Amino acid sequence: MWRSKVPFFTALGFSMAPLAGGLFMIILKDPEAAKSLGLITTKAQLLTGTADWPAFLGFLAQAVAAGGMVLFSMITIWVFGREFSDHTIKELLALPTPREAIVTAKFIVVSIWSLAITLLIFGVALIVGRLVVIPGWSEDLVLTSFTSILGTAVLTIPLTSFVALLASVGRGYMPPFGFTIFTLFLANLSAILGWGDWFPWAIPGLFSGVAGPRADALGLHSYVLLILFSIIGIIATFYWWRSADQTK
Question: 131: buried, middle or exposed (CB in 10 Å: 19+, 13-18, 0-12)?
């Protein structure tokens, strides 16, 4: 039963990012009142900087960049791995539906679900920002931030094709989850070493602006590599579903 609610609770946890950002804004607006909280004021300044809309939306972009891969991977793992964990894969394949159609439908569900959650989080962030009453609002800023956050999600979703592949090959949850954590580690490491623009899983984070202006961090080769790796993952997933012996 609990496994059927994994995506819901994962999305719920991710939606806390705007609330956390709002809390930091409240602290930064009145540092004196926050002194009783100890180091939390210092932590808020490190994470967001100042109490204004650019800092607030910048924090949200960082949250999507850092948490998006985990969230979207969890959704992908659940969509592609549940039949194997619940041992219902034979019943699914007994339906008069081509395997390619099943895989396509799964990828579409993952994409729609991931984008819907991203839009929901951005909407919640706008409401929280208005309630907290922080300065610096402008329509251009909101449009730019929306493009950055949505673009980060759009670049992240195709990379989950490898998660889908491992959820299928591994017939469950653990192999793809381990792969997700490993790629997050490598993404951070490659960005620190200055090679993030050559590592596909680091590109969405760099696109979000977390490490500075994306024009300085990314080049045409970055997007080509991301698209190439995503296509490889998608093709490999289709090939495995078409060729694997699912009776085992």
Answer: exposed
Over the stretch 103-156, which tens digit does the pLDDT of each residue have?
999 999 999 999 988 898 888 888 888 888 888 888 888 898 898 889 999 999
Distance, in Å, from the CA atom of 81 to the CA atom of 90, rounded to the nearest integer, reads: 13
pTM: 0.82
The sign of the CA dihedral 94, 99, 102, 106 is positive
What tokens does 101 get?
């159609």
Would you call 173 helix, strand, or coil by DSSP?
Answer: coil
Neighbours of 241 (CB within 10 A): 20
Q: What is the DSSP letter of 184?
A: H
Three-state secondary structure of 186-217: HHHHHHHHCCHHHCHHHHHHHHCCCCCCHHHH
CA-based radius of gyration for the chain: 20
DSSP 1: -
